[in-house]
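Morning, I've got a small favour to ask if you have a moment. I've dropped the whole record in just underneath, so have a look.
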Amino acid sequence: MNYHPPLQTRPRVKRLTIYNYRSIGEDGVNIQFPHNAPLVLIGENNAGKSNILRALSLILGETWAGNYMPEDHECFGRSPEGLTIWIRVEVAGVFCPYGCGTTVDSITLKYAKGDSRPCEYTIRTSGCAHTWMSNELKSQIACMLIGTERDLTYQLSYNSKWTYLSKLMRRFHSQLTDDESRVQKLKQFYSGLVETFYEVPEFSKFAESLKESSSRFGGNLPYGLDIDFSAYDASNFFRSLRLFPHIDGEARSFEELGTGQAQILAIAFSHAYAQAFGSSGLILAIEEPEAHLHPLAQAWVSQKLMELTQSGTQVILTTHSPSFIDLSSPETLVVVRKEAEGQATQITQLTPSGLVQKLVSTGVPVERVDNLNVGPFYESSSTNDIKEGMFARACVLVEGATERFGLPELLKRVGTDLARLGVALLPVEGISNIAKWHRFFEAHGYRVYPIFDSDSDKGGSKQREAERARKDIFLALGLSSENDWNDYTQGPVGIHDRFTIFDANYESALGQLFGPHYSGLEDEAKRRFGPSKSLAARYVAQHLPSAEEDPSTDDGWTHIKRIAGQIEQFVSTPLGSEIVLTNQ
């Protein structure tokens, strides 16, 4: 009988710790699993996100790691000499199947080259330890990994005993054969089916010929050999069943499905597979659930996965889509990165209290932020543009759409492509939000370079508001708010190691740098595109004459090159290095 624990005590993973496995080195990674929400691994390509899923699957997946011999490339640095692969899963609600009468605390897998046995399990409880993994233990808590290949046709076939469908139907067969009367009933039913097939003369003639031939050619064997057709497999009654997708009430082949439909069906099948047996200790590990789905479908799948976690299923996923990022629960986000190719994978995972501490350390008054509201505060003011920054190596923060459309084009004109550098340019909707998002991204380990306006042309309350925002930016940068901004806004553009400031704003600064060329192109853009400042900014940036075409623009392009140089230098500086503020 399958164990159905109540929701509050269902088996679950609490923590995953990994050392020396693939891109994860001797410093290791340590990941906590949240309650009732997906755990989301984000970061650049090749940072090591998939390796975390593989490590979890190695212990709790369908394979038996005790028979597993890692290849050299699965050891950190591609060399197993002197290294021990060590993966530990801490669990809750898992009952010890070895007669201890207690619960399992952790399951550890280790491998060291030269050991007498390949990989070794250690299952620890409060009072004992065991070194083998039982079926009963695996049935309580299991990881089902849905990889990026999404080979649905294979997984929903009987091509091997390890496909999803084969594993599922073997378990159904085991339960069915517990009842002998039900078995006899099925045999009689299937016999009737075969009799109907024999009513086809050609089939009947072939079947008789086959039986005669097999008997004649097998006559010299020690045991008699006979053959006959059957509508079922006696070793697995359910193997006669086939799974087909239906569209508009009509059965179709899997080849007819779009990749997005197959993607959703793979996730649905995996969840139903676990729910059918009520183990409820399911960890659904999904690589890039957004693959092949349009943005609205991504949002829908994200919502469904959230609902799964709230019903007791744990979900861990890798993603490159902002649809799966929920800033309201900081502990659900794990930023995965490597500083350079060949270096070890690192992670950043912040609890709400950890994020609060980071904010307070950079000037946020302690009375203005608390553990309960810090996540919702950021989620409520986020946009998909801002969330896309979490997939970058570094972030350039700008005030709005004008800079978002114009600045990248200017930088490309001088040879700096932010996309090539892995840098996201994020519009944060006003100078008052620069410090807020600078703190958030820096807390999660990103390099952040803000570019904003001095607003020196404003007066009254708007000027005072801008002044407060600039002081807050100084605090976020780790500098004294008493610094005089006038020292850093000499000329139309103040370019510094930690930030750039336009005086009085982006348009007026470029107008001063490029003179009549800028104003003329801006007027032309307005005639073409109407009052859209962002479209005008991009058009002007694309059509400003180069210094070779008109030497009068040389000073303007020199400033743009200096901005590009500062950004490139800043984002290439290793995290943790001290950068001194200088005035240029």
Summary: The chain has three domains: 7-156+276-334, 170-240, 383-572.
